[in-house]
Amino acid sequence: MRIIPGPLNGLGQNDGTAAASVEPLQSPHGTMLARLVFAITDAPLRTRLAELAKGPDTVVSELTSGAWLQQIGRIDCDLVVVDTAALLIPAKDVVAALRQTNARPELLVVGSDIGAAGRAELLAAGCMAVISDELSDQPFREALATLVQRRRETVQRQREADEATHTFGGFLSKSASMEKFLHIARKVSRSSSTALILGETGVGKEQLARAIHSQSPRSAAPFIVLNCGAVPEALLETELFGHERGAFTGAVRAHRGHFELAHRGTIFLDEIGEMPVHLQVKLLRVIQERTIQRVGGEDALPIDVRILAATNRDLATEIREKRFRSDLYYRLSVVTLEIPPLRDRKDDIQMLVETYFEQFKAQMPTSAESISEAAMETLRAYDWPGNIRELINVVERAVLLCDGEEIVPEDLPEVVSAAAVPKAPAAVTRQFDNALQGLDNAWLTRPLAESRLAWNTAHERAYLQGLLRQTKGRISETAQRSGIDPRSLYAKMKQLGLRKEDFR
Q1: Alpha-carbon distance values, 253 to 238, 247, 292, 464 (Å)
Q2: Residue range 319-333: mean pLDDT, rounded
């Protein structure tokens, strides 16, 4: 909501004589929903104020439990409204606790007979405002709307600052390769030039296209997406260019295609490498002439559309194999943006994991409060063939399945955990495979723990025998090669019945 008020006094009342004017808050990102949580001990008051706060751009939740402060960390919200009775601890401690949550909401206090000193103390503690619960409906609505707008503007300024310095359309990165890439993408977004976005599956090609559009001069116009690989070939032409009534059996009315829908905006042609050759010819003509012709139509319709295209195919190979036209490729690739895969930006993995972990932790019931270092090391060791999309899915799964307060490697998919296990040399693997095949059946009657202990002891003995044989019983060299300090090596040899004299 856009609020044009007079200045607020200490009670949140409007000192101006004119009523506040209300209009939608518009931004390059659209209208921002404001999420309010009411934690008020007086049930009738809580219900009344929550009803007054409801609107097309607000989402209101009510907490009736006395332990509202413990619950608030799992709720994504912008403003927390409490009465003085709900402040079971000093206001400064409440504010500090809210600052530790992911959303960092503001605190509004509602009460009566607080007095000037009490109001000053609450504001000094970090409360956004103090509003009288004795206000009639309209003044309360206006005061709350003003505070909601103030929060929106703060969030918007922070969002714009973040995008200007660290992110581009939600891309989180601190790696040098990605920062260089995003610098180029920001430049591209300022123009209306055609661009070709390349990258592996899951790197965020559509996300990049949306970011380019949102930062471009066309941001107020539509952003239209068409996945060329997901539409049957027989329907793709009409989806692109539209059709006239009666153009074919079943065409009972005219249909506007995606190019018409994207007029003055941006069309994103995903999986452009999947487009049939005969349609590539028509697309080339659209790019050259900036007109389209509906299926069954005779008139050429002028369009003003920026084209962004993407593919994970190797278009050079597609051109050699005559599956993609070279002239279309050159038209599309005025600027080529190739998004680096996640395996080439390992420095970003921890930041991405932590970001999505906090998001999912706030969205779903889970006992997980943190990620263990062992789990993080496992995630860093993995190559991520599915890139960001795969990482998001892995983090969501771990948050959902975690039984403890900390995500551990066992909470990760097996294919991810396996990446952190060092691979044994092929010769060693063959040796163990042969040894396992030769196990006496008597071993299979023993408990696993007993068998594991006996097997490990036998392996340690054979390993040290081999090293001592190579070093001719020299303890210092054996200790260095095995990574065991000499004192521990002596103790281990005594335990296994090995003497250095037997190897000289």
Answers
A1: 13, 9, 18, 83
A2: 94
